[in-house]
Amino acid sequence: MVRVLIYEYFTGGGLADSPKFPSVLSEGYAMLNSLLRDFSHNAGCETITVLDRRLTEDIPHVAANKMITVSSSADVKKIFRSTISEVDAILVVAPETEGTLCKLTQLVEDTGGATLLGSSSNAVKVASNKQNITRLAKSLGVAVPEIVTFSTDETEDAIFSIMRDLGFPAIVKPTEGAGSEGVYLINNRQDLHDALRNATKGGMKKKLLAQQYVKGTDASVSVLSSRSGLTMPLSLNKQIIQLRSPKDQASRYEGGYTPLDHPLKTKAFESASKIVKAVKGLKGYIGVDFVLTEDEPVLMEVNARITTSYTGLYRVLHRNGGKGVAHAIIGAMIKDRLPPSIAFGGYAYYSKLKLSSGLKLSKDLIHEISSLECVESPAFPEQQDEKEVFLVTVSNSLGEALKAKSVNEEKVKRLIARHTKT
Question: For the structural domain made of 146-212, what CATH number should be given?
């Protein structure tokens, strides 16, 4: 039996020194929960995970054979060093922001003794830099948007001149980051002014990237890459992204569904495979984001890690007797072997249900929400701003999955309403 340490940054003590968690905590726990279920139940692994001590009372059951609690971010490094020697493999899920994923991956490499079920630290560094990965993709013949970079210490006039040459509308985002964090739709100079103000809050100077806006379908390709560099696209996934200007609420990733049936699926698979093969050390599960135009897939970014689509993908690949994603990752990274084929057992719709900001989340309510089969993560009282429940709905057709999603959201709302009255 393979012993695997599965570490997710937001739930695993990465923010243990912060008084509150961001709303992405639910998304992080949903990925952790999906991974633990898939590796433990479907792949037959013995799993170990790490959990921020503040969350232990909120979560009724963690699907791991062993759970280690941490009280400070300093504990994380100690646990990595002491635990890695006890396991056969380790899987790290963390944001690229401020080099977090790269640093944790480097820690695993430096400690040694366990197989890393993912990309090397150098590959993470290459993939995380949006400017560099765009240049690489272009050299491979993959369609990319026009981009420019600038620093927030440049004058607004100079930056506006750069943006005007690029054309409006445009997207501004950090050169390194995860999800929709710090991403804005820019239509005019006022939007640019507001975006720069938001980027420099706290006196921080940042390097930003402006990207030509591309109209089309937001999508991602989940790619599996083996130890020796064999690649296999697993799925094309729909992404639901709300792009917003800085004067509105921040841009937001809402979830998505898998598989996505689209005429450009084959081209997207080919483009994703080209990019993954071209980056030395890009291994395990990789997410490659595209906008699918009428003619071609246009690369947006590469995520050298488990992405949110995993929460739906593992369910539909395991359904109807399939072996699931974890089994494929173990095969690729330990046995250097890809699965002969991929069979989908329906469609999975993964989404976030926003709750009222003033809602009081009792322990009993959290446990009841968690008990629903459709819930991959409850909301948590420790979340600073928006509180969210992460849902995954599976059905035989996309239409049925969408209807079931609405039904499941109502289940959660009724449960909350009942608790609020009592």
Answer: 3.30.1490.20
3-118 CATH, one of 3.40.50.11770, 3.10.20.310, 3.40.50.1820, 3.40.50.150: 3.40.50.11770
What's the pLDDT tens digit per position in 325-377?
999 999 999 999 999 888 898 999 999 999 887 788 888 889 899 999 999 99
**For 16-64, what is each residue's pLDDT tens digit?**
888 888 878 999 999 999 999 999 988 999 999 999 999 987 887 788 9
Q: Which fold has domain 215-304+309-345?
A: D-amino Acid Aminotransferase; Chain A, domain 1 (3.30.470)
Digit-coded pLDDT (tens) for 135-194: 999 999 999 999 888 888 888 888 888 888 888 999 988 876 665 667 889 998 888 888
Domain with CATH 3.40.50.11770 in the chain: 3-118
Assess if CATH 3.30.70 describes domain 347-422.
yes
Q: Read out DSSP for 173-236?
A: EESS--TTTT-EEE-SHHHHHHHHHHHTGGG---EEEEEE---SEEEEEEEEE-TTS-EEEEEE
Backbone angles phi, psi at 225, to 5 degrees: -125, 130
Q: How many C-beta neighbours within 10 Å does residue 273 have?
A: 17
Alpha-carbon span 229 to 145, nearest angstrom:
27
Residue 250 predicted with pLDDT over 80: no
d(CA 31, CA 316): 15
Residue-wise pLDDT for 278-333, tens only, equals 999 999 999 999 999 999 999 999 999 999 999 999 999 876 556 789 999 999 99
Four-point Cα dihedral 23, 29, 35, 38, nearest 10: -120
- The rounded distance, in Å, linking the Cα atoms of 215 and 340 is 35
* Beta-carbon contacts of residue 65 (< 8 Å; ≥ 6 apart): 40, 46, 47, 48
Structure tokens at 359: 């809602």
Q: Considering the entire predicted model, what is its pTM? A: 0.93
Residue 347 structure tokens:
């469609």
DSSP 362-382: -HHHHHHHHHSTTEEE---TT
